[in-house]
Design a protein that fits this description.
The protein is mainly beta and about 130 residues long. The chain has one helix spanning about 1-20, and strands spanning about 20-25, 35-45, 50-55, 70-75, 85-90, 95-100, 105-115, 125-130. The protein has one domain: Superoxide dismutase, copper/zinc binding domain (Immunoglobulin-like, Sandwich), CATH 2.60.40.200. It contains one helix and eight strands; from the N terminus they run H-E-E-E-E-E-E-E-E. It has an eight-stranded antiparallel beta sheet with strand order 5-4-7-8-1-2-3-6. A hairpin with a 5-residue loop joins strand 2 and strand 3.
Length: about 130
């Protein structure tokens, strides 16, 4: 019975990874031209979209010129204002990740370098962007 349960969990995990879509983020600025990222999209059990944002080659925002306090992640559906879904932290390997849930089916995900660690709207330079459908 236990072996069957483990097997079912493995099959479900494999199917979930097959169903997930992946979108490449494009560099939006010369501020960090080596930055790269992707958005992996899945659905939760309530039908919401779960966006897993992963970035690479992104330095600490304090090392930018001019220095910034944080990287903010935004989701914006067509015709709607951008929504701040969190602050992206990067590690010593210049990588970072975060997860956000949204009810929108089509939207854009973008990352900005911000002076304010809790911005209400994007004001800093945009670093990366992806269109999700």
């Amino acid at each position: 019975m236990r072996r069957l349960s483990i097997s079912l969990l493995l099959v479900m995990a494999l199917l979930a990874s097959v169903w997930a879509k992946e979108y490449r983020m494009k560099t939006s600025s010369d501020l960090v031209p080596s930055a790269a990222g992707k958005v992996e999209l899945d659905k939760d059990r309530n039908g919401n979209r779960v966006a897993k944002v992963r970035v690479y080659h992104l330095p600490d925002p304090e090392k930018l010129n001019p220095a910034r306090n944080a990287y903010a992640v935004w989701i914006q559906a067509k015709g709607k204002d951008p929504e701040n879904v969190g602050i992206l932290k990067v590690n010593g390997d210049l990588e970072g990740q975060m997860e956000a849930t949204t009810p929108y089916n089509k939207f854009e995900v973008f990352i900005t370098a911000e002076d304010n660690p809790k911005p209400e709207r994007p004001s800093g330079p945009e670093i990366l962007r992806a269109e999700v459908d």
